[in-house]
Write a structure and sequence with these properties.
- The chain is an alpha/beta fold.
- The protein is built from eight helices and 14 strands.
- Strands 1, 2, 3, 4, 5, 6, 7, 8, 9, 10, 11, 12, 13 and 14 form a 14-stranded mixed β-sheet that branches.
- α1 runs parallel beside α3.
- The longest helix has 17 residues.
- The relative contact order is 0.16.
Length: 286
């Protein structure tokens, strides 16, 4: 069943970031993230999205060698108290902005997950979402998450995904069916994947007539060199902002609820979705 929520009452200005974190340097990357948040806030952003595993960097050799220092610990309620993140918490609290940032998390049962941390406007840090669709060798280091998540900012409903999640139409659709107005995807796309990077997230926007905010790492050394291209898409999959394939950038766009409403009126896929879609099929011989 698709849950129906009214369009938000006002616009929301969001920022997506492409940046190059240092492998294993959680404190240094958190301090750099704080600067990026301040830069985005200076351009009017109220929500800032940073790349997948940004706080430790997406660098599997480092993650495998130092599973304690590269991870942040969550308590049973999903709260994270780690002094290395204090600069980022302070930046969010001072500006009254919500931050979504990628991290490696160690849970109380010793599970490790790739997570989207949410730093709220009061500076509190919690695990917002654990990546469900693990890619390749990630399965050797991490456990998959067991649930989706929707972040509420004012009256905007923001579905959360991480990188490979966005390659599955079902993941974005689950967010939309939970009433998401937008889909936030911290990611880490390697150089050479530009075609897929640009196709998947525009498609998720149009599939579900929702905004998509895609953040990505950039730079680094082969084979862990990332290709930027951070972007914000409107509900028809059209680009509102896009970064280059190289170099750090902070991109800002305003999500307009009137665009959401008019798009969903003209393109009613969510409303027209058949309850038995994907069910029994017949076979024909040609």
């Amino acid at each position: 069943m698709t849950r129906s929520y009214p369009a938000p009452s006002g616009p929301l200005t969001v920022a997506t970031v492409q940046a190059t974190p240092a492998p294993g340097d959680v404190a240094g990357n958190a301090a750099a993230a704080a600067e990026l948040v301040r830069l985005a806030v200076g351009q009017g952003a109220r929500v800032v999205v940073l790349p997948e595993l940004y706080l430790c960097a997406y660098h599997p050799p480092t993650l495998a060698a130092d599973p304690v220092g590269t991870h942040v610990a969550a308590d049973p309620a999903g709260l994270v108290a780690d002094g290395r993140l204090d600069p980022l918490s302070a930046a969010a609290r001072t500006a009254g902005v919500t931050v979504v940032v990628g991290a490696a998390v160690r849970h109380p049962d010793d599970r490790r997950t790739i997570a989207a941390l949410v730093v709220d406007r009061a500076g509190a840090v919690r695990v917002g979402y654990d990546k469900q669709q693990l890619w390749g060798d990630e399965r050797d280091l991490f456990s998959p998450g067991g649930r989706g998540a929707t972040l509420l900012v004012d009256d905007w409903r923001l579905g959360l995904g991480i990188c490979y999640d966005g390659c599955f139409p079902e993941h974005g659709r689950a967010a939309a069916r939970d009433g998401a107005h937008a889909y936030l995807c911290p990611s880490g796309y390697l150089a050479g994947s530009e075609h897929r990077r640009d196709l998947y997230y525009a498609a998720r926007a149009l599939d579900n007539t929702m905004f998509v905010v895609f953040a990505n790492a950039v730079g680094g050394s082969d084979p862990w060199r990332f290709n930027g291209g951070a972007a914000i898409y409107d509900p028809q999959g059209r680009t509102l902002a896009r970064g280059a394939d190289e170099g750090a950038e902070t991109l800002v766009a305003t999500l307009d609820p009137a665009v959401l409403t008019s798009t969903r009126a003209a393109h009613s896929m969510l409303a027209d979705l058949l309850p038995g879609q994907g069910g029994a099929r017949m076979s024909l011989t040609g």
